[in-house]
From TrEMBL:
Alphabetical UniProt keywords: Coiled coil, Membrane, Transmembrane, Transmembrane helix
Name under which the protein is recorded: Retrotransposon-derived protein PEG10, putative
Superkingdom of this protein's organism: Eukaryota
Segments traversing the membrane: 76-95
Coiled-coil residue windows: 39-70
Amino acid sequence: MEGIEAKTRDEAPKLLMAIRCAKAALLLSSLKSSVSRVFEAANNDEDEEKEKMRREIENLRVELVKERLKIKKIKLCGVMELILQLILVMLISSFHMTLAFDFFLCDDESSFL
């Protein structure tokens, strides 16, 4: 049962990352279609349609930048978490090593006396 829970905990961040990447891809495709509509509107000389499409393109670009920043923050948090875990493991292992050395050194001195 623990293996399944650990597996789902490991897959949750990957699933969130996949969802964010899919959303970014959707925003990019929407942006491309909006650009093509702006060019069509330019050919038809519809000023109102052009302005509406430009606003839509700017909104999509802002959303895309926000999603990219979220993805970068998630990656940075993951790296920081890994570094902190490594530091914790090193601290704990060095603590145990000093205890072991102290135990063996004290044990050796008593045998010489």
